[in-house]
Amino acid sequence: MRIVLTVGLMIVFITTFFIMALGNSLVKQAVICEEIAYKPDNYNCRLEKMSIDMFVTFFMVLSFIIADVGALFLMITTWGS
Hints:
Layout: H1 2-30, E1 31-35, E2 43-47, H2 52-78
Antiparallel strand pairs: 1-2
Helix pairs in contact: 1-2
């Protein structure tokens, strides 16, 4: 049981950083902000069209979330033994 919990916590810990990094890059790819020339500190932001890079990044984030859920399920089911 201790080994399963340790491995599960390591999986959750590592994939959380990947989720945050990939999510950050996905937002940076999707949202484009430009400063308005005649209004300092005012930005005009818009969403870009969905590209293949954003699509792949989204599915990578989704796969890491599924891995986290699987690891948490494994840890919860072995907790009582």
